[in-house]
Amino acid sequence: MRTCLLVMLWASLSLYVDNMSITRRIVVEMGEMEGEKEEDRDGGKGEKLLKRFKRGWMWNQFFLQEEYTGSDKQYIGKLQSDMDRGDGTLKYILSGDGAGDIFTIDENNGDLHANKRLDREDKAFYTLRATVVNKNTGIKLEPETEFIVKLHDINDNEPIFTKELYTVSVPERSNMGTSVTQVTATDADDSMYGNSAKLRYSISQGHPYFSVEPDTGIIRTALGPGEMDREKREHYQVVIEAKDMAGQRGGLTGTTTVNITLTDVNDNPPRFSQSIYQFSVPESMKAGTPVGRIKAVDKDLGKNAEMFYNVVGGDGLDMFDVITDKDSQEGIITVGKPLDYEKTRSYTLEIQVQNTQTLDTRFLGYLPTKDMATVRIGIEDVDEPPLFERASYMMEVKEDAAVGTAVGSVRAMDPDGYNSPVRYSIDRRTDLDRLFNVHSGNGSVFITRPLDREEAAWHNISVIATEFNKPLQTSRGPVYIRLLDVNDNAPTFASFYETFVCEKTKAGQVRNIQTVSAVDADDPAGGHKFFFSLATEGAYRGNFTVRDNGDNTAGVLTRRSSYSRLHKSVYLVPVVITDGDFPMQSSTGTLTVRVCTCDREGNMELCNAEAQTSSAGLSTGALVAILLCVIILLMIIVLFAALKKQKKKEPLIISKEDVRDNVVSYNDEGGGEEDTQAFDIGALRNPEAIEESKQRRDIIPSDTLYPPLRQTVIPSRDNADVRDFINQRVQDNDNNPTAPPYDSLATYAYEGTGSVAESLSSLGSASSEGDQDYNYLSDWGPRFRKLADMYGAEDSDCDS
């Protein structure tokens, strides 16, 4: 059929070309005749005029059918020149695209032929040039003329799809007419000539599930949601056909394959494969141990098939749990609480399963979205060890309880149905001192050795319960024993106390020379209460006394006005300490009091050699250590001094901004009271003359850092007091915003308005012919103490 069509087209085209050639010849001959007529008219006038000749040959284009299948050369047309008289003196020459290879011309008569089979899809036209020359002289007789050879298209290319295979997907349950994908085909034939490249699409495989639009190639679903169910069929293979010639008969076709997959939607709830599950578990299983697995089936895929399980009913609701295995989507039943075969031998659970994702209920109808299953769990009996009645035992006993005293008792029993007898023992690893024991039959715990709360207030032991007939069946019960306190320890001094007393004290002056406290190893319920007093015997009672402060401390006071180192340098004062618990306990502590020489302020200056040695209370080794430390310290000082000499002398002030901890030596001498530039002595004489806004000299002046200071209130001379003045100056410096964040020297230049020293004038002194007390001379210094001893009328060393 295709060959017949080609032959008919070739015949038609040949006739057309012949007609064009005949017409061209007629036109050329007519042109020649008109030229001759014009020559005759001009010649008759006897003049030679310039005239315009028409070109003897002129071609625009030739047409050639593609895919020529004949055995001879394909004739294209004939080139004819007016100068060709047929005498063989002219020569036709061809140049351009394919000249001499694809196209040839008969140099004698101008016939143009195609030597090869041409394909319009490779090249649609060729541009050629032709000219005529004289064979003998080679002179061009005609100017070169350009023409085109066009190839006529035939329907020789079938449609080709952009892909040989399409893979697409569409959700299941999609509505009818849902777009799936679009396929596209192309045709290499000439779309401007006939219907060779006009395509139509059709579906040859895939009915009745899908359809395709003829003009666009869009594939759509052809069935409703009820038919497009992934669980029934998931994969479809559709064959699409593209046909040229607008789909008419005789057109060429191309095909492609489209693989369509229905994607899953959550349209199926999970369902148990069976309604009743049965498991058995031994009663010894611990909490959290898996019992068994149940599984529901969901026809969906991926997240749409994820589910979770939970216990919603049954008598085992509180005894068992269920968790979901994310990998296998199984429900794992686990033990929630300890099991006991003797109490309950079986349990029933109602377990529910449902999807984690929202379920599409459009296609479920009246079907439930959840499913239920019954699980029956049987408990198996296990030979268990004895079980104590309590998880732990707490017992109390007094620390002075006699050996053999019962502290308490424990009790365990065989939980099995056999009710085997139990014997008790103590784990000696928890009672290394063997202070306790337990009766093997009744579990009574008793004391085997004396106890002391001050050594250990708590004892933690373990009692072992063992089945009499099965020694391997054992269990342990912790027992915590607390020892109750008994007042069996006397209070003692909290530390070693040692103090001193001055030789000379003012008449009638009673001083607290030491405060003492006590400790007690006992722990009474109401807390400690101590009482202090002097021992009832001894000569020290006339020299010292004890005053109980009522807060478990006491003060030791002197009862004499003066003491003498020469007479007695050390006093041992016994203090009786008594607690307030029952039975009352007491002890005697000794306070060491040494007689020393003191200054007027009561500070110790000198004690005798015995006092120095004994008061230190140091051993020979300690004295050697102290001596070594002193030597090392001296060496460090010498080394530091040597390094300081070698160190380069630094400038007086390293930085103007840094004035901290710098000692500035001006190396000048003040002018005394007359030198008012260096120091204003008037501040000592007249406190009211102090400047109100005197700036500090240890920091850099700044206008912004020195707001006006408030005026210092100076007490009047009638009630002026040094302490009030100093406190006022301290407050001013504390509130000064320019005070530096480091230690600085603040001068409180105020002498005061009076003196505690009495007048030395004899006119104001009271004179008496009677005995005088010269002890006040001791306050004047060491030089006057001897004088006071010489003129003293009363022997101060006598004991009253």
Automatic annotation (TrEMBL):
GO biological process, one term: cell-cell adhesion mediated by cadherin
Main subcellular location: membrane
Residues that span the membrane, as ranges: 622-643
Positions of the Cadherin domain: 81-161, 162-272, 273-388, 389-493, 493-606
Location(s) in or outside the cell: Cell membrane
Topology term for the membrane: Single-pass type I membrane protein
A Pfam family recorded for this sequence: Cadherin
A GO term for molecular function: cadherin binding
Cross-referenced InterPro entries: Cadherin, Cadherin-like_dom, Cadherin-like_sf, Cadherin_CS, Cadherin_Y-type_LIR, Catenin-bd_sf
Superkingdom of the organism of origin: Eukaryota
Cellular component, GO annotation: adherens junction; catenin complex
Signal sequence segment: 1-19
Keywords: Calcium, Cell adhesion, Cell membrane, Cleavage on pair of basic residues, Glycoprotein, Membrane, Metal-binding, Repeat, Signal, Transmembrane, Transmembrane helix
Role according to the record: Cadherins are calcium-dependent cell adhesion proteins. They preferentially interact with themselves in a homophilic manner in connecting cells; cadherins may thus contribute to the sorting of heterogeneous cell types.
Name of the featured protein: Cadherin-10
Organism: Oncorhynchus kisutch
